[in-house]
Design brief:
Elements (H helix, E strand, L loop, with lengths): L15 E3 L10 H7 L13 H12 L22 E7 L7 E6 L4 E7 L19 E7 L1 H8 L2 H23 L2 E6 L5 H8 L8 E9 L3
Antiparallel strand pairs: 1-4, 2-3, 2-5, 3-4, 5-7, 6-7
Helix pairs in contact: 1-4, 2-4, 3-4
């Protein structure tokens, strides 16, 4: 039986922001499923650090129930866990910037900072209805494809779907609007600002977040 080596991407030299403990409300899975809906209208109330922490932890973090620091809250082919998460803090109680989620430490590594960010330059659909946060999922292809070959790419895409649904259900529990984005963005610009290469770490999934505008 395989005992896979779990790889984690880190930016050890970058500014690190520790996240508080996650806090997920006790609601039934049935209620979360019934209430889940895609929204494209967001208020401009800043996302709290607590909510950002909870979304990233239950979306991408390590599941402590197994005590091996390998398992997550979603399945992964061969236990390779190729997905990486990036958080665009557009209007939150975290300093505005782009961050990488460090799953080992449950914190954020700052890739860039800004006082203002022209979101429509990267995501033209958000010229008016702007979210206050974005989560970008990428896939480290080699982690899975070294075992499964070309099939591995399909498995990575499936895995991103698992994570995307988890994030949406967590957001539903937190009364946060979210919408998955499959396209309609400038991929090369996003790759450039994240300093990634689509041949080894393509962008797979994007989710926009924000509180109810009512």
């Amino acid at each position: 039986m395989d005992n896979p080596t779990i790889c984690y991407k880190t930016y050890l030299k970058n500014k690190y922001v520790s996240l508080c403990n996650p806090c997920l409300p006790r609601i039934s899975v049935k209620k979360a499923l019934l209430n889940r809906k895609s929204y494209r209208v967001f208020s401009q109330t800043p996302l709290s650090v607590q909510d950002v922490s909870t979304i990233l932890y239950y979306g991408l973090g390590i599941n402590p129930s197994f005590h091996d620091f390998k398992h997550r809250f979603y399945p992964s082919a061969g236990g390779k866990f190729p997905l990486e998460g990036y958080f665009f803090a557009l209007k939150t109680h975290i300093a505005c910037g782009i961050y990488h989620y460090n799953v080992q430490r449950h914190g954020l590594e700052q890739l860039s900072s800004f006082s203002s960010f022209n979101l429509s330059e990267y995501f033209p659909q958000f010229i008016i209805k702007k979210p206050t946060g974005l989560i970008v999922l990428t896939g480290m292809l080699q982690r899975t494809m070294e075992k499964y070959g070309e099939r591995g790419r399909r498995y990575i895409d499936m895995e991103a779907g698992h994570v995307g649904q988890n994030i949406q259900l967590v957001c539903t529990a937190l009364n946060i609007h979210t919408v998955p984005i499959g396209g309609g963005y400038y991929l090369k610009k996003i790759e450039s600002i994240l300093d990634i290469n689509s041949k080894s770490e393509p962008v797979i999934y994007v989710l926009a977040l924000g509180y109810d505008a009512k």
